[in-house]
Design goal:
Elements (H helix, E strand, L loop, with lengths): L2 H5 L6 E6 L14 H19 L3 E5 L12 H14 L7 E4 L4 H11 L3 E4 L5 E3 L2 E3 L3 H10 L6 E5 L5 E3 L5 H12 L3 E4 L10 H10 L4 E4 L8 H7 L2 E4 L15 H14 L1
Parallel strand pairs: 1-2, 1-11, 2-3, 3-4, 4-7, 7-9, 9-10, 10-11
Antiparallel strand pairs: 5-6, 5-8
Helix pairs in contact: 2-3, 2-9, 3-4, 4-5, 6-7
């Protein structure tokens, strides 16, 4: 039995993204509306996802564009406040992703009781955010130092808007990541949020690491979910749940219900 059955109560889970609007310190933060507005929008999106029947939710600071690889304290504090205020209404497992800072993600997970984190834990990349380096050994040691050893780690091995500095085949990346770092799951992404995960790449990764969970991480839609779940062990879904499938809009309950009905038929 995989850990998804134990922790997320199903095989082939759908982890829905709750994209938090720009936070204090972010260029897009609405000072006039303030944190109460950000909290209200997060609540509305989360409740629509939960009522729509998703298996789990992942809270992320998706609108903190452009992203930092070392996130500021105010970002983590604001996310902790939002999750804390939503806690009485949360009835399904949840995870967190503080983009793009694995240490901050672990801190937030431990503070809020999140079951999992998704991050870029490994690799060195040329990215839209500059040269993007990681230190997985230190991150995992930090995880254990703060008592978060039970938090499941989802390793994104195809970072959005970035490319390995040295060419490596995806199979090599997957195999060495699993051998060296022992992720709880590996995520395969498209180029940006909402961009389809390449089924060919997804299949190659799964074949390379058959004993590790592999998730489709971006761009899964109602007309592709059957194919993607035919390859992957689960999916992280965000944009497709929003009005018109538009990243910048808000979650639409009817779209969530329709998508999850299709997933239940497949499963």
């Amino acid at each position: 039995m995989s850990w998804t059955k134990e922790i997320l109560n199903t095989e082939k889970p759908i982890i829905a993204m709750c994209h938090i609007r720009a936070l204090p310190g972010d260029p897009g933060y609405d000072h006039a509306a303030g944190m109460q507005w950000v909290l209200q929008k997060a609540r509305e999106d989360f409740l629509a996802l939960q009522e729509g029947g998703v298996d789990a939710v992942m809270f992320s600071n998706e609108f903190s564009l452009p992203y930092l690889t070392k996130v500021k304290t105010e970002t983590v504090a604001a996310m902790a406040r939002i999750i804390g205020e939503l806690m009485p209404e949360i009835e399904i497992p949840f995870g967190v992703n503080v983009l793009w800072d694995p240490v901050a993600s672990m801190d937030l997970a431990q503070a809020t009781g999140a079951k999992f984190v998704r991050e870029i834990f490994t690799g060195v990349y040329a990215s839209d955010f500059g040269v993007w380096d990681t230190n997985c050994g230190e991150t995992i040691r930090h995880q254990h130092r703060i008592g978060a050893k039970d938090v499941k780690s989802l390793f994104n091995i195809v970072p959005e808007a970035a490319q390995y500095l040295a060419h490596r085949e995806i199979e090599s990346i997957a195999k060495t990541t699993v051998f060296n770092c022992k992720p709880d799951a590996v995520c395969v992404s498209g180029m940006t949020a909402g961009e389809a995960t390449d089924s060919n790449i997804l299949s190659r990764v799964k074949q390379a690491i058959p004993n590790t969970l592999v998730f489709a991480n971006t761009g899964v839609r109602i007309n592709t979910v059957e194919e993607q779940l035919g390859i992957a062990d689960g999916a992280v879904v965000g944009t497709t749940f929003k009005q018109d499938g538009d990243f910048n809009k808000y979650v639409e309950l009817a779209r969530v219900k329709e998508f999850m009905q299709e997933v239940k038929r497949i499963r």
